[in-house]
Amino acid sequence: MNNEIKKEQIDLSSPSLSGQQIIILAIESSCDDTAAAVCLNGKILSNFIANQKVHEKYGGVVPELASRAHMQNIVPVVDVALQQAGITLNEIDAIAFTQAPGLIGSLLVGSGFAKSLSLSLNKPLIAVHHMQAHVLANLIPNTPPNGGDGGKPLFPFLCLTVSGGHTQIVLAESPTKMKVIGETLDDAAGEAFDKSAKLLGLPYPGGPLIDKYAQEGNPKRFSFAEPQIDALDFSFSGLKTSILYFLQKETKADPQFIQNNLADICASLQFRIVSILLKKLKKAALQNGIKHLCIAGGVSANSELRASFQKMCDENDWKAFIPPFEFCTDNAAMIAITGYYKYLANDFTDLSVSASARAGW
Ligand code: KG4
Ligand code: ZN
């Protein structure tokens, strides 16, 4: 229980600077997508992403190839984002970029580019934490309401942030004040999807494919172990091992087992991952007495997670906020909205800032 948090919920998400127009150019390059976005007073004017296909044949992201592709993509991607927004470089008020966490080579391309722009245009620079940005994707104004009466979550709210590298329950007290109150002790939820998909012979990233095959499957057909972890933390490495042993045993008896049961395996696996996630989120909401709940990150694109999260919130009379798909997986719009709030808070950085693969909150 956090005693510092005021019990009444407050809307800190619609500040204004007495009619001033604030235009942020945002750059995201933490992993294998090169993305740029422009926002005007928190409204997203453009959100453009160049996905890197080069990694598909390797079954995962190859950091060196990702950095090289960012180098090739970054100028045209920023150009398209500006054009789509109808904004010129001279009109922007600040440049926001992902500073951490992520692949260091990829982050260096984005941060180096942002710093060069800042220097040449003489515009302020804003360093953004990628995980904080995933949470604030829920504050993007045109996010469709999922809680009944529309709009954005009120502070303090909880966010289950689930991506390829992180699984966290975040207590957001304001756009710039957040605390991780639960996280994975080993694999992330996205890794649990991707590594299980690999065991099933599916290409990377396997999460969306498991989601697709699961639509046709029976989630109760196979039962996968639920880890017993203290407090609000998670663990997914045991699940991965139990799937490995399960598949080894079954394919020994029937070499066609995976092909013949793919939909049921995917549905059962997805059911277990989602139930592990939501059980802890529910515990966090009850412990903290918080009624506005969000999900974020690539895994929040998962259809079962979205549906079960909504159901859990409805049953408990909580409000559920779910970002549109394009703001769940990595994107620059979330960097832009975070940049906007940091601009309002006068939270700028200087050119000595360096990208960081790991970063605390
Ligand atoms: O947030 P994100 O785009 O990148 C990181 O910051 O990691 O998350 C990527 C992760 C991958 O593990 C991918 O498999 C997973 O999100 N993912 C999904 C779905 N869409 C993306 N997992 C399950 N179901 C989906 N529909
Ligand atoms: Zn991410």
Supply database-style keywords.
361 residues, alpha/beta, Nucleotidyltransferase, domain 5, 2 domains, five-stranded mixed sheet, 9 helices, disordered N terminus, binds 5'-O-[(R)-(carboxyoxy)(hydroxy)phosphoryl]adenosine, binds zinc ion
How would you describe the overall organization of this protein?
Helix 1 runs parallel beside helix 2 (104-121). The protein has 2 domains: 7-143 and 328-344, Nucleotidyltransferase, domain 5; 157-322, 2-Layer Sandwich (Nucleotidyltransferase, domain 5). The radius of gyration is 21 Å and the shape is globular. 39% of the residues lie in helices and 18% in strands. A hairpin with a 4-residue loop joins strand 1 and strand 2. Strands 3-2-1-4-5 form a 5-stranded mixed beta sheet, with helices on both faces. A 5-stranded mixed beta sheet has the order 8-7-6-9-10, sandwiched between helices. It has helices spanning 63-85, 104-121, 130-136, 189-199, 207-214, 237-253, 257-288, 303-316, 333-344, and strands at 23-28, 33-40, 43-51, 94-100, 125-129, 157-162, 167-174, 177-183, 292-296, 319-321. By secondary structure, it is of the alpha/beta class. The protein contains 9 helices and 10 strands. Bound molecules: 5'-O-[(R)-(carboxyoxy)(hydroxy)phosphoryl]adenosine (KG4) and zinc ion. Zinc ion (ZN) is lined by residues 130, 134, 163, 297-298, 330. Zinc ion binds at residues 130, 134, 163, 297-298, 330.
Shape category: globular
Tally of separate helices:
9
Write the CATH architecture name of the largest domain.
2-Layer Sandwich
Present as ligands are:
5'-O-[(R)-(carboxyoxy)(hydroxy)phosphoryl]adenosine, zinc ion
Ends apart, CA distance between termini: 19 Å
Mean pLDDT: 91
Low-confidence stretches: 1-7, 145-149
CATH C-level category of the largest domain: Alpha Beta
Q: For the report, how would you describe the main beta sheet?
A: 5 strands, mixed
CATH superfamily of the largest domain, called what?
ATPase, nucleotide binding domain
CATH fold name of the largest domain: Nucleotidyltransferase, domain 5
**How large is the share of residues in beta strands?**
15-25%
Radius of gyration: 21 Å
Number of domains: 2
Q: What is the H/E order?
A: EEEHEHEHEEEHHHHEHEH
Number of strands: 10
